[in-house]
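S1.2 Input.
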Amino acid sequence: MTGRSRNFGGAWAKTPGRLFGTGFVRLYQLTLSGFIGNSCRHFPTCSEYAYEAIARHGLWPGGWLALFRVMRCGPGGTHGIDNVPERLDARLRWYMPWRYWSVGRGSPAG
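S1.3 Output.
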């Protein structure tokens, strides 16, 4: 991360989908996160993970990564350091979103 932001500060393509997705996550961080959040069992937090996943990989794959990360964060779920992979495995296809579930569960990039 760079600067004062808690979100991903690396270079990423500013496509409409990515801007919409990261904007939605940022809106959540500025409004609801204070009421709902502050209890994430992972580092980075789920909203930071979602922001970086969408910025790095686009709205569709990043959105699936974020959704499955939030689902893993509940009671009885995983905990600890869970970074967004820099590259996604070739077996992760846009038409098979259920495969994104395995990312971050002990596998390096899916």
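S1.4 Remarks. The CA atoms of residues 31 and 57 lie 25 Å apart.
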